[in-house]
């Protein structure tokens, strides 16, 4: 057995000591699934530009999207740490496919679970986390990213027993394929964030929806993000989430878990870059020895290893705090910020170690770099996370000031099962 293989086994054993047997089993299951079902075929989907609906269905059947959701809606109720490990391992194996996790197992079904009625939750969430229907969550607009609610222009006009939504959205991932999604629009133009309302949307059922994929350098050609045009798009009143004006609290609570999702994927990308760099440094020979023997290469490898271990501690801590129902907005922001920084650092250093090959499509380092950049922005940019962290530290605005005060459902307490038992 090589030194590298022995080292990898030792690292996996160390990680296993920090996890319960159940979480270790989940991690191993995800790796087996990805290696058997996704990795061998994903390049084909990318070449064809074909949406991997069948792979999403298989992932749903395997339980990869339901870790945080209770059994009453088809989840496994394993919690946020399990979900984070799933995200990490999926991204480590093929981050392109893991990009659908938010829509299937995080932000989209979470919005519905947190803000929906029992009827809405039981109608939509089980099929989303089972991979039977394709999800989507659309918040951002071209003029409002970090202040999406305050600058929102999309408007939902009440027209009898339906709403008609007009406007434009940006970066709506999978909006060109979605069956059931969540979209945010103003119902009161003058009320700022308090005028935002959340809606369950069904583009294949109602008119007025047009999604156009955006050309993105280095990102998936199979799972696309879109610009979304809404022209009197119809939403029945019964598909509104909560009351008018409650969209802001729904999305803020959802994005807390969404940051953890992105942090887990960023950690997976960092590990993928690190593992590829270590392998290449041991295989690439210069002047009769592997380049891994060179001190400059060793310095890069060491910095990557240090950053990954620090990020792992933060990300797992945030997940565990969320599992324990502790105030977690601050730690989720810290974990997301650090993990996204680590992903960028590891991707950059891996490309330097690969040299010119780091830009060649045959090596995944070339597109891992693009995903590292994506996670630096997704679910709140790095600067937004820093503002939140700094204002909390300075005592200006506590990051966890809304903990336990939103009046929304608690996924970890299975409020839906309690509601069903009363009916």
Automatic annotation (TrEMBL):
Its cofactor is FAD. It comes from Cupriavidus basilensis. Residues 137-222 form the Acyl-CoA oxidase/dehydrogenase middle domain. Keywords: FAD, Flavoprotein. Residues 245-393 form the Acyl-CoA dehydrogenase/oxidase C-terminal domain. The keyword Electron transport does not apply. This is Acyl-CoA dehydrogenase family protein. It comes from the Bacteria. InterPro entries: Acyl-CoA_Oxase/DH_mid-dom (IPR006091), Acyl-CoA_Oxase/DH_mid-dom_sf (IPR046373), AcylCo_DH-like_C (IPR036250), AcylCo_DH/oxidase_C (IPR009075), AcylCoA_DH/ox_N (IPR013786), AcylCoA_DH/ox_N_sf (IPR037069), AcylCoA_DH/oxidase_NM_dom_sf (IPR009100). Residues 20-132 form the Acyl-CoA dehydrogenase/oxidase N-terminal domain. Belongs to the acyl-CoA dehydrogenase family. The keyword Cell division does not apply.
